[in-house]
Inverse folding.
């Protein structure tokens, strides 16, 4: 047998090939008649004003920060969860304390008002 | 033995009779398996578009597609031909390499999840499970996160302001809803004691929807939000930002983006079935794939039902619902399940000895928790609304009084 990750690598390659086929077929079969109006950015018929690639709304940044906290927490939680059935009671309580500590971070962000969308 | 395993064994036999080397046979079989699973994914997409159009039409008192084939079942084929032969317009000033790669990446990111979805028990040579990965669920979550990057790529490279807005919204929503999803998965892993999706079905002597009822609900809601389907379709809200991040995509590229969305929805259903509904097991043994697909289509039906029923969220409601309700709830759920399971073991109702007593008592705990959470959330929400209304009223009064 191919090792599990070997198979997944193979699967990714096969998937890319499988999905490229319609794209390539499309490129071959489709007509190609671009003109100026057709290739404008579609903004409901209005002409576009200014540059699109700007710095935008730092609001999202806070959510990203909280997300990172919880995602890293999940990485720590998953191995613990696998071993949960064999753990002594101490191991369970220690991890529960860890969860409470991180929940504290959420409470902090909440009270600071960082979870309000404005 | 199921038909796929029989075919696989037959092919194996055939190739060794021709006299191919063992490693070459393994490689060819693996490629065949991957191609079969990938194609199954594409076929599922075609079927799902038809199911969705038909069902949503019925819910809106229409007929839906009727012309192509019986009940319009051939319409996905007609769509496919049309998509392939349509002109592919690329907007002026687009970042071309990124623009090209984005649909490919978003579609690949969902297709490759099929590698670990257990359509049936792992019989070794069969095609029912791509591969039995020991970190299967982490793989699924990680690959799902790659889709978020693809969305941002699509939105950014299109050189369109609506697309960019849609992409920003999408990323904020997708990463937010990943948190409760991951936390509920942790609860499942905790009880299952494994991250392997095949094993996870094997250990479900009681379908995990009973002991983890709350986790199942949170998982499903956040899963629907992850797919960006109604009522969480802010990232492509037609009335606000036209079509969101895929506004500038046309022809086959648009089709790939759509495909990613549909298959993602199907995969959320498949994961739900695997984690909570006992996977491929059903009342009649030997029909593994049939049961699995029936359950998945059932979950997909519930998603369509959502779409037909609920109006769209507002973005602040969406974020508040996640961070102030689902995340705390899934954290509390994790604590309660961890403690509850230990308590039940010390009471002698462990899963090994009496699975149904264990499952149903945890179910009762879950229901109580859910009721308590909805009552508290309802109270807090009402108070916040009243406060907002009082503030708005005060604002409305202020200029009138000062003017006099």
């Amino acid at each position: 047998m191919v090792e599990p990750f070997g198979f997944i690598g193979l699967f990714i390659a096969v998937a890319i090939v499988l999905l490229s086929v319609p794209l390539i077929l499309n490129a071959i079969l489709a007509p190609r008649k671009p003109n100026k109006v057709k290739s404008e950015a579609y903004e409901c018929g209005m002409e576009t004003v200014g540059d699109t690639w700007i710095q935008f709304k730092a609001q999202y940044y806070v959510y990203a920060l909280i997300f990172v906290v919880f995602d890293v927490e999940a990485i720590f939680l998953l191995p613990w969860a696998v071993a949960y059935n064999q753990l002594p009671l101490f191991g369970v309580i220690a991890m529960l304390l860890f969860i409470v500590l991180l929940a504290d971070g959420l409470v902090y962000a909440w009270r600071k008002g960082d979870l309000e969308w404005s | 033995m199921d038909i796929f395993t029989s075919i696989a064994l037959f092919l194996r036999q055939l190739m060794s009779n021709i006299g191919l080397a063992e490693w070459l046979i393994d490689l060819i079989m693996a490629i065949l398996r991957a191609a079969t699973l990938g194609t199954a994914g594409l076929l599922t997409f075609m079927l799902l578009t038809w199911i969705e159009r038909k069902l949503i039409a019925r819910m809106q008192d229409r007929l839906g597609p009727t012309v192509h084939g019986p009940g319009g079942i051939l319409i996905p084929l007609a769509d496919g031909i049309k998509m392939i032969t349509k002109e592919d317009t690329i907007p002026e000033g687009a970042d071309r390499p990124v623009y090209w790669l984005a649909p490919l990446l978003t579609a690949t990111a969902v297709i490759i999840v099929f590698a670990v979805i257990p359509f049936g028990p792992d019989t070794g040579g069969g095609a029912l499970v791509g591969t039995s990965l020991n970190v299967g669920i982490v793989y699924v979550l990680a690959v799902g996160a790659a889709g978020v990057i693809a969305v941002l790529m699509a939105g950014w490279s299109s050189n369109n302001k609506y697309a960019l807005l849609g992409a920003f919204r999408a990323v904020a929503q997708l990463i937010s809803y990943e948190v409760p999803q991951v936390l509920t998965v942790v609860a499942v892993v905790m009880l299952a004691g494994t991250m392997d999706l095949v094993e996870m079905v094997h250990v479900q002597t009681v379908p995990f929807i009973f002991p983890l009822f709350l986790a199942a609900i949170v998982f499903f809601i956040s899963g629907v939000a992850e797919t960006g389907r109604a009522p969480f379709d802010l990232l492509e809200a037609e009335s606000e930002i036209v079509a969101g991040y895929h506004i500038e995509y046309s022809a086959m590229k648009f089709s790939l983006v759509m495909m990613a969305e549909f298959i993602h929805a199907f995969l959320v259903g498949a994961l739900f079935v695997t984690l909570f509904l006992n996977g491929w097991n059903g009342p009649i043994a030997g029909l593994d794939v049939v049961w699995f697909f029936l359950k998945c289509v059932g979950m997909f039906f519930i998603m369509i039902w959502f779409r037909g029923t609920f109006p769209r969220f507002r973005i602040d409601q969406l974020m508040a619902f996640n961070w102030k309700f689902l995340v705390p709830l899934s954290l509390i759920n994790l604590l309660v399940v961890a403690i509850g399971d230990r308590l039940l073991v010390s009471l002698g109702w462990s899963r090994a000895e009496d699975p149904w007593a264990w499952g149903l008592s945890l179910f009762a705990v879950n229901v109580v928790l859910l009721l308590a959470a909805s009552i508290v959330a309802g109270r807090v929400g009402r108070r916040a609304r009243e406060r907002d209304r009082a503030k708005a009223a005060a604002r409305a009064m202020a200029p009138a009084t000062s003017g006099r």
Observations:
- The radius of gyration of chain A is 25 Å.
- Chain A has one domain: 4-111.
